Every structure is written in C-alpha cells, then in structure tokens.
C-alpha cells in the first residue's frame, strides 16, 4: 500500500500550531503530535524512562521523567541536551513511523514544532507553517502560567526565526483569527484531497 501524503505542520512557540493541529483533525486528517509522543516516552512505563535514568538518575521520579529536573540539568550542563536528544530522537522517530505505517488514510498531519530545527523538512511532502505577528505571539506566550520574558526570549533563541520559516514553507497559514485559520486549513485539505492520487 502507498504511504500517506505527509503534511509537516510547524510554527514557532505561541503561533497557534496546536490549535491548527486540532483543526486538521476536525477536517478529517489524522494528526501525530511530537510533543505528545515525548510525553508518552517520559510517562511511567514509557520507553524513554529507563534510558534517561541511566544518564541522569535524579531526573526520574516515581517511575517517570521529571521534565523540570531535566530542564534544570540542561540549563546547567552544556552536554545534557545532546545526551537527551540521542535517546529521545530515535524513539520519537520510531513512534512517528509506526503512526504513519498504521494509518489507512490518504494523508496525515505530522505536528512537529522543531521541524526545521531538526532538518526534517525533506521527510514530509508539504511544509505548513502557522504564523502570527510578533506582538500576538508574545502576548500568547506570556499569558502561559509561569512564563517570563526571559524564558520567552530563551525559547525564541533556540528556534529558527518565524520569517525564515515562512520563507521556507510551502504554505503559510495565518493564526490571528481562529475562523480564518480554520478556513485556510479546510481549503488546503480539500485541495490536497482533490490532487492526491487514488490509493
């Protein structure tokens, strides 16, 4: 059977990507969520728990990875992030491959926040970037519990700038007005459905 058409959905923090992912799902497109895959890996019984415990025992509490402890370690040790990525990235890739292989739909949406940062744009058929003006982005992020301007700036520094993401995207969907976003997504899904070859 032919593999499904892969929509790579991405966008910087606070751009409304999670909302857009739900809209793809509501439009009938199965969505794989990279962040949810990591949460599963870190949960009790998750495939990442034992491996993380080997490199940082303090980061595992009650059989699950304590993400706050992991972040603190990454902040204090320049080698920590690479160590964690070496464990997590292959497991996430396995989860994504299993999701794609397990669907009978003609297209799926892969919700990957760090799609460009991870050099994964070549692994999807179309890159869709969700984008909002900087002031909207900042307002959304700073409204999150516990978020500070310093944390926001640090997160932005780790991500490919929004302007570059938009320039590299196949499709850019604005996410200021929810209904406008939904209209763009529905139109894209309908267009792709018409253009895709029959299974």
From TrEMBL:
| Signal peptide coordinates | none
Query: What is the first-listed, main subcellular location in coarse terms?
Result: cytoplasm
Q: Which UniProt keywords apply?
A: ATP-binding, Coenzyme A biosynthesis, Cytoplasm, Kinase, Nucleotide-binding, Transferase
Entry's localization field? Cytoplasm
Q: Which reaction does it catalyse?
A: 3'-dephospho-CoA + ATP = ADP + CoA + H(+)
EC numbers, comma separated: 2.7.1.24
Any one Gene Ontology BP term:
coenzyme A biosynthetic process
Q: Which InterPro entries does the entry link to?
A: Depp_CoAkinase (IPR001977), P-loop_NTPase (IPR027417)
Q: Name one GO molecular function term.
A: ATP binding
Q: What metabolic or biological pathway is this protein involved in?
A: Cofactor biosynthesis; coenzyme A biosynthesis; CoA from (R)-pantothenate: step 5/5
Q: What does the entry list as the binding residues for ATP? A: 14-19
Q: Per its UniProt entry, which superkingdom is the organism in?
A: Bacteria
Segments crossing the lipid bilayer: none
Q: Name one GO cellular component term.
A: cytoplasm
By sequence similarity, the record places it as follows: Belongs to the CoaE family.
PANTHER family documented for this protein = BIFUNCTIONAL COENZYME A SYNTHASE-RELATED, DEPHOSPHO-COA KINASE-RELATED
Q: Which NCBIfam families match?
A: dephospho-CoA kinase
What is the annotated role of this protein in its UniProt record? Catalyzes the phosphorylation of the 3'-hydroxyl group of dephosphocoenzyme A to form coenzyme A.
Q: What is this protein called?
A: Dephospho-CoA kinase
The organism is: Palleronia aestuarii
Name of the gene: coaE
């Amino acid at each position: 059977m032919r593999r499904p058409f892969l929509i790579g959905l991405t966008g910087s923090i606070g751009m409304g990507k999670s909302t857009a992912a739900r809209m793809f799902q509501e439009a009938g497109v199965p969505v794989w969520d990279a962040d949810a895959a990591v949460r599963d890996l870190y949960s009790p019984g998750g495939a990442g728990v034992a491996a993380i415990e080997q490199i940082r025992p303090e980061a595992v509490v009650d059989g699950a990875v304590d993400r706050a402890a992991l972040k603190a370690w990454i902040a204090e040790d320049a080698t920590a992030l690479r160590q964690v990525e070496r464990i997590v990235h292959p497991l996430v890739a396995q989860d994504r491959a299993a999701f794609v292989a397990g669907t009978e739909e003609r297209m799926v949406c892969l919700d990957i926040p760090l799609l460009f940062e991870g050099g994964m744009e070549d692994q999807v058929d179309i890159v869709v970037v969700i984008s909002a003006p900087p002031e909207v982005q900042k307002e959304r992020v700073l409204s999150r519990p516990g978020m500070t301007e310093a944390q926001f700036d640090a997160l932005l520094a780790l991500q490919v700038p929004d302007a570059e993401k938009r320039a590299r995207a196949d499709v850019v969907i604005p996410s200021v007005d929810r209904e406008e976003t939904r209209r763009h997504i529905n139109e894209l899904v309908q267009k792709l459905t018409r253009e895709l070859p029959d299974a």
